[in-house]
Every structure is written in structure tokens, then in C-alpha cells.
Specification:
The protein has two domains: 2-393, Alpha-Beta Barrel (TIM Barrel); 401-489, Sandwich (Immunoglobulin-like). 29% of the residues lie in helices and 15% in strands. The chain has helices at residues 2-16, 33-45, 86-94, 96-99, 107-117, 159-168, 208-228, 247-260, 279-289, 344-356, 375-391, 473-476; strands at 47-51, 121-127, 173-179, 234-238, 294-297, 324-328, 360-364, 398-399, 405-406, 409-414, 419-424, 435-438, 449-451, 460-463, 466-470, 484-489. Helix 1 (2-16) crosses helix 8, helix 5 (107-117) packs parallel to helix 6 and helix 7 runs parallel beside helix 9 (279-289).
Length: 494
């Protein structure tokens, strides 16, 4: 029984904290027919863009985490005139609103680069945990359109509007990242009390009226995004620790934490608090504004997490539910000066691996304080684009096929029953070998096997265990793409 209790506590704690690497991977299937339809379409898109952007980009820090009083590396304070003084630091951090002035902001250029890379959807940060709104919210003055913000007089001041319009014009679906916690709002971090950690700094059960004001504020901000900014396909909610928790689970969590505290000083690095923002009610209202809206209440087990979002990792195997790996492309989630981006080979191989396991890849690119992407981001997306021009038919609208991977060969299958084999270039390998042997797939007798980007069929031979494809010299010296090559099998034996 003790082991069960500890397991419950661990699961509860994991789903409460967004920085946890391994999220609670339980899944509750959706029942709304329109949402299911949109979810299936989303699963077929396979490749998306995430952007973390806010005033924090001016300091090149880990989004807004440095104003959170927790003893983690991503919360470390290094900027400002006196980072050792928390109160002064927060004041200077919030003062970044006045100097935020991304005059080189060009969302049209971003959208064209994303489309060129083969991205089919995007998720933009409307506000991070600091509460700074990157859109014209009427419920706060801590926003990009406030008169005190340097960018407010710019014709593109309503950044969310400009971003959404630019990406829609490229036929890219839109998603709104929204933080459930808001550290600027006085009904979340009450100025009377010092903040303890990332959570609300008072007990909502003791101050129900104050907490209700915060719930209303959260609902109002989300609904104005879904009302004033056109078609929104995905509501992507971060801050999974803001959720309703039952007291028994909370009590068991604290028992386990005290057991870990071998010094017996009672110190707990961060708390667990029941923070019910009435998600069920919110989702109903949201879908009245946007019928069929996909909702992702990240890291919160329940019906409002339409797909799961493993963070900065790719699962080791296929998963039996909709999911996407959200991955940083270079530097961190937010702008990092001189960020080193993944290579084209790394990115292409990651996309193939994710898709072969049945997931989507959501790749994060972080704009600079001036409103630009670094050249490394454009170079990476161009590498994706060159490869996708040849191989996209093996990516979009495909499903996993067992065993999904054999050595360095990944596999997908389309609705017509065609099977695609991705040969991932090995270290130092610039071309596909003259013979490719696959043991786990059995092509039908007489079926056609070809390479995407090459219009002639390839010779193949059935083996006692699998089959062998012969790559002619004329093809191997003039391959249609780099980093990975796709063999298409018209039909296989089940």
C-alpha cells in the first residue's frame, strides 16, 4: 500500500510541474466529433513552429523564470543592476516593458520561412508566466500595446494579430500559447504576501473571492484571444501546476517530500497547491467561440489535454494517443545571443524519428529583442525545406508501422498502404549504400520499390529474411536530397 501511495504522489507531482522532463502520460480520449476531426487533421500535419517571445528577450534569459523565487538553474538571476536583491530585480524586470521595441519585427518573413520548411501549424506565446501580454488585452496594462511600452506606437504593436495574420496567409494553422499562472496579476501573486515559489502565494481556499477574481481574469483573457483574433486552431496552455488537486493527493505528496528531507528542517523546494481555474467551464466557453478547438492543458491528466506534449525529448517508442515533441532548435526556449542551432541532419533525423513513432514535431524558434530570427534558424528551416520538397509525401498524413525502426531505417505508412523506409545517413555518410537490406518488412511479389525524387523503379530481391534493394551508381552519385533517403514500397504483405 505504501508503494501505491508513493506512486500516486509521484504522478501527482510530475503533472504539477512544467519543468519536469517526464510528464504524466495518461490520456483521456476526446469525445466531441468536431474536435476529433480537427485532431486527426492536426496529426496529419506532423511539423509545427513554436515561438517563445516577450520582454525577457532583451536580457537573453530563460523566459520569465528568473522572477520565480525557486532554487533551480533556469530561475537564476544574472541581469539587472543588483540581481542579488529580489525585489529590485523584479522591478527592473517589469521595467523591460518600457524598452521593448522590436522595430525589425517581420512576421511575414517568419511565415514564409516556416512554410518553406514544410511546417503546417504554429503556436505563438501570447503571454508567459510573467503575465506580459503580447497582444492588446483590455484586462491588463502589462502588455505590448500599453502606452508605456516603447513599441506601442508602432503600426504592428498588436503582435499577436500580425503574427496570426501572416501565418494564416501562408495557410498555416494557428495556435495560442497561454500561461495559466500570471505572476504579475495581484490575484495570483498578492502584493501583501511575498511569493514563495511558482504557485499562487496565498491559499485559494482561504481567499475564495480573490481566487475567483483570478479565475475570471484568466477566462476573460483567453476568451478575448478566441474572440478578437480570428480562427484559432489550438489553445496551448502552459503552467500545468495550476490545476485542481484533491486534498488526499496533496497530503500524500507532502508526506513523501518530508521523507526526502533528510535534514529534517522541513524545507520543501516548491509546494503543491490546489488551483482550480475551472477548466471544464472554460473549455465549454472556448468552443462556443471556436467550435472544434483543440485544447492542450499541458501536463494535466484529464479530458482537456487533447494531445500530450513531451518537452525537449522524443519518446523511445510509439505512443497510443496524439502527441507532439516540443523541442528547442537552438539555445533555449527564449532568445539566446549567439545560439548554436541543431544541424540540418539533426533536425531532419529528429522529424523522421518523431513521425515514425506517430507523433508531431513542434520546433521552437526564439525571436530577438529587435524582432528578428537568428540566421541559424533560417538556415535550419531551409535544410528542412530542401529535404521536404522531395520527401514530404512520406511525412504528412502517415501512421506508424511496426517495428517503426530497424537499425538506421525508420518507417511510415500512408492511407493507401504504401510503406516508406527512411534511410538515415550514418556518421560521416554522404550517400546511401549500394545495397539496402531490410528484414522486418515483406514487400508483395512484383510490387514496385522506388526512391522519392527518382522516377525509375529500383531492383529488389526477396531474401530468406526480408529483402534487398539495389541502388544503382547513377542514383547514388546524384541523390535527390541530403541527410536521409526515402524508399517507397507500393504494397507489403501484412
Amino acid at each position: 500500500m505504501k508503494k501505491v501511495i508513493v506512486l500516486i504522489a509521484v504522478l501527482f507531482s510530475v503533472q504539477m510541474f512544467s519543468q519536469a522532463i517526464y510528464e504524466d502520460e495518461r490520456y483521456v480520449p476526446e469525445t466531441d466529433p468536431l474536435v476529433l476531426k480537427n485532431l486527426e487533421q492536426w496529426q496529419g500535419k506532423k511539423f509545427g513552429l513554436l515561438m517563445h517571445w516577450g520582454t525577457y528577450s532583451q536580457w537573453g534569459i530563460v523566459e520569465s523564470w528568473s522572477i520565480c523565487p525557486e532554487d533551480y538553474g533556469w530561475c537564476e538571476r544574472k541581469k539587472g543592476s543588483n540581481p542579488g536583491n529580489y525585489s529590485q530585480y523584479v522591478k527592473e524586470y517589469e521595467g523591460l516593458k518600457k524598452t521593448f521595441n522590436p522595430t525589425k519585427f517581420d512576421p511575414v518573413k517568419w511565415a514564409k520561412a516556416a512554410k518553406g520548411a514544410g511546417m503546417k501549424y504554429m503556436v505563438f506565446t501570447t503571454k508567459h508566466h510573467d503575465g506580459f501580454s503580447m497582444y492588446d488585452s483590455k484586462y491588463t496594462d502589462y502588455k505590448v500595446t500599453d502606452k508605456e511600452c516603447a513599441f506601442s506606437s508602432n503600426p504592428k504593436a498588436d503582435i499577436l494579430k500580425e503574427v496570426f495574420n501572416a501565418f494564416r496567409n501562408e495557410n498555416i494553422s494557428t495556435g495560442a500559447y497561454f500561461s495559466k499562472p500570471d505572476w504579475h496579476n495581484e490575484n495570483y501573486w498578492d502584493p501583501y504576501f511575498p511569493p514563495f515559489d511558482r504557485n499562487v502565494n496565498y491559499d485559494p481556499a482561504l481567499y475564495p473571492e480573490k481566487w475567483q477574481k483570478y479565475v475570471d481574469f484568466t477566462h476573460n483573457q483567453i476568451l478575448e484571444i478566441l474572440t478578437n483574433y480570428g480562427k484559432v486552431d489550438i489553445l496551448w496552455l502552459d503552467g500545468g501546476w495550476v490545476e485542481k488537486g484533491d486534498q488526499k493527493s496533496i497530503n500524500e505528496y507532502y508526506k513523501s517530500k518530508f521523507l526526502e528531507n533528510t535534514s529534517k528542517n522541513g524545507f520543501i523546494k516548491h509546494r503543491v497547491v490546489s488551483q482550480d481555474v475551472k477548466m471544464d467551464e472554460l473549455v465549454v466557453k472556448a468552443r462556443q467561440k471556436q467550435p472544434g478547438l483543440i485544447v492542450v492543458d499541458r501536463a494535466v491528466h484529464g479530458k482537456n489535454q487533447n494531445y500530450l506534449t513531451p518537452e525537449n525529448r522524443v519518446p523511445e517508442k510509439t505512443l497510443p494517443y496524439p502527441w507532439e515533441s516540443c523541442i528547442t532548435s537552438g539555445g533555449g526556449w527564449s532568445y539566446t545571443p549567439d545560439a548554436k542551432y541543431m544541424t540540418g541532419r539533426q533536425g531532419i533525423h529528429m522529424l523522421i524519428d518523431v513521425v515514425a513513432k506517430g507523433g508531431n514535431l513542434l520546433l521552437n524558434v526564439a525571436p530577438s529583442p529587435e524582432g528578428e530570427w537568428q540566421q541559424g534558424a533560417y538556415d535550419l528551416l531551409a535544410s528542412f525545406g530542401d529535404w521536404m520538397k522531395v520527401n514530404s509525401s512520406a511525412i504528412y498524413d502517415t501512421k506508424p508501422i511496426a517495428p517503426y525502426k530497424e537499425d538506421n531505417i525508420c518507417m511510415t505508412q500512408n492511407k493507401a498502404g504504401n510503406v516508406f523506409l527512411f534511410y538515415l545517413a550514418k556518421e560521416g555518410e554522404q550517400k546511401i549504400p549500394s545495397e539496402v537490406v531490410v528484414k522486418s518488412i515483406n514487400p508483395k511479389k512484383g510490387t514496385k520499390i522506388s526512391m522519392l525524387g527518382f522516377n525509375k523503379p529500383l531492383k529488389w530481391t526477396k531474401l530468406a529474411d526480408g529483402f534487398k534493394v539495389t541502388i544503382p551508381e547513377s542514383l547514388s552519385t546524384n541523390l535527390p536530397c541530403k541527410e536521409a533517403w526515402t524508399l517507397k514500397i507500393e504494397a507489403i504483405n501484412k
